[in-house]
Amino acid sequence: MTTGEAELPGLTALLYEATARLDAHFAACAVAVGLTASQANAVHELAEPLGMRELGRRMCCEPPNVTFVVDRLEERGLVERRPHPGDRRAKLIALTPTGAELRTRLFAGLAADPPLSGLPDADRRALRVLLHRALTGN
Description:
Strand content: 5-15%
Number of helices: 6
Shape: globular
Largest sheet: 3 strands, antiparallel
Number of strands: 3
Order of helices and strands: HHEHHEEHH
């Protein structure tokens, strides 16, 4: 076993811990704006109107779960279903003005004291580059 291989279990544990902290931060920010983590995930992804299938793909969610989340958000007036211009059977999900304002508040919370804030900006940029390279092979 090479030195690099011996260090991989430790790296994996650190990545899992970082992910857990990021997830906890996201969930706390969701609660702070009155959403569940799944609802916040949908609001986060709706920078532009999306079809249900695409929203589900981005949320890593099965279609029935996406429908449930969108229904709850629609009941609260945060999203609306619009006709899909290319498929009259499909709908696009879009934030309402109230939903867009809530999305802005969610992002403000996410930016406040994030789990990686202890790293200097240069280190966070370097980490981003390395993770991008690891995930894309570029």
